[in-house]
Specification:
With about 400 residues, the chain is mostly beta strands. It has one domain: Porin, CATH 2.40.160. The protein is about 10% helix and about 50% strand. It contains 3 helices and 20 strands. A hairpin with a 2-residue loop joins strand 16 and strand 17. It is globular.
């Protein structure tokens, strides 16, 4: 009798067991993908505060990451989507992006083929989404080729917290979008941000433009651009620019202009607590105009070489007067694919600060990705690395 009862109970429970452990037809409508990039190499910097250094460094051509992204079909062309992306340092295993678990991206939203995508969470701004693709650093070269101090955020120095983003569908090659990032503060406008951008692609042509504004970036821990995530800490940040790239056969050429303006800047995330002005001097504003030309040539399906030059005009407006230094940045890169997922590359970057002196740390050359500024107006970085994508 006991065996019969057990058999009946097992038979009744079997459908529930199969539901938990076996795929069902409904699961075919949901997809989740695990992906990542591991970028690790050896850097040589000729001057890091009066001495050269050899170091193992992570994520220069592409930030090392792993992530999950997924979509669920809701019917009628509507999908629920999400993405969680962690940035980490391969050399130490530590989190990047201020120690956040999903510091690169974390959002959920809805997507429709005819109407576009609406997402909510920690996300990229429109400069990164649209304009950065026309720069060398935002396309194929990465951090070492970013504009001085990544002043225009084309290399993703920071993301936007508390962000609502809309991305349009592609309309005959044209796509646009925008973001609004809440301050999460009783003072509504304090540390909020917003951005707009668009791009047009036709054949080998890509044209893009974007605008970004942040109020009190780097001030506080709960706003759009928090203290442990900001590039410059200031009363206001404004960035705008445009770029164009064109592919002709195996070659690609590009030109980019960006304009970054910081009101009452007090610090920079790459420099830590080091002041941006001499003792007793107030820095009213700091402006960068970046003019970039870049080129890439695909020698074989496995090998490409690339080059970049950036001319940066800096306007340093302090209580003692204004000066206008110039910054020259040159970059070279060669990349060879060992397989579809693994490549090796070598990069070199040279920077020189010329012209007027600000009598501050900004007179010293500094390439983002190095430990600290040079003790002179010149700095050279060379990197050899391996990258694997999964």
């Amino acid at each position: 009798m006991t065996k019969q009862v057990f058999a009946l109970a097992f038979s009744a429970a079997l459908p529930a067991i199969l539901f938990v452990f076996c795929p069902t037809p409904a699961s075919a409508q949901t997809s989740v993908t695990l992906y990542g990039v591991i970028d690790e190499g050896i850097n040589y910097t000729n001057n890091v505060g009066r001495g050269h250094v050899y170091e193992l460094a992570s994520g220069d051509a592409q930030g090392s990451r792993w992530g999950l992204k997924g979509a669920e079909e809701l019917g009628g062309g509507l999908k629920a989507i999400f993405q969680l992306e962690n940035g980490f340092d391969v050399s130490s295993g530590r989190f990047n992006q201020g120690g956040r678990m999903f510091g690169r991206q974390a959002f959920v939203g809805l997507s429709a083929d005819s109407y576009g995508t609406l997402t909510f969470g920690r996300q990229y701004d429109s400069v990164v989404d649209y304009l950065a693709q026309t720069t060398a650093n935002g396309n194929w070269a990465g951090l070492l080729f970013s504009h001085p101090y990544d002043n225009d955020n084309t290399d993703n120095t920071f993301r936007l917290d508390n962000t609502v983003k809309y991305t349009s569908p592609s309309l005959s090659g044209f796509q646009f979008g925008g973001t609004y990032s809440f301050s999460n503060d009783t003072s509504f406008a304090n540390n909020r941000a917003y951005s707009l951008g668009g791009q047009y692609g036709y054949g080998g042509l890509l044209v893009a433009a974007a605008y970004l504004q942040g109020n009190n970036p780097g001030n506080g821990a709960n706003g759009a651009i928090t203290a442990n995530d900001a590039s410059f800490i200031a009363a206001r940040m404004r960035v705008f620019g445009g770029g164009i790239t064109y592919n002709f056969g195996p070659a690609t050429a590009g030109f980019v202009y960006t304009n970054s303006n910081y009101l009452d800047p007090t610090a920079n995330g790459y420099l830590g607590i080091t002041p941006l002005a001499p003792p007793g001097v107030l820095l009213n504003s700091l402006k960068y105009q970046n003019f970039e030309v870049n080129g890439k040539y695909q020698i074989t399906p496995m090998l490409f070489v690339g080059a970049q030059y950036v001319y940066t005009m800096e306007t340093y407006d302090a209580s003692t007067g204004g000066v206008k230094p110039k910054i020259h940045s040159f970059g070279l890169m060669a990349d060879y694919n060992l397989s579809k997922r693994t490549d090796v590359y070598i990069q070199g970057e040279y920077q020189q600060v010329t012209g007027d002196s600000t009598y501050s740390i900004l007179d010293d050359a500094f390439t983002p990705g190095t430990q600290s500024p040079s003790s002179t107006s010149k700095q050279v970085v060379v990197r050899a690395a391996i990258r694997h994508k999964f």
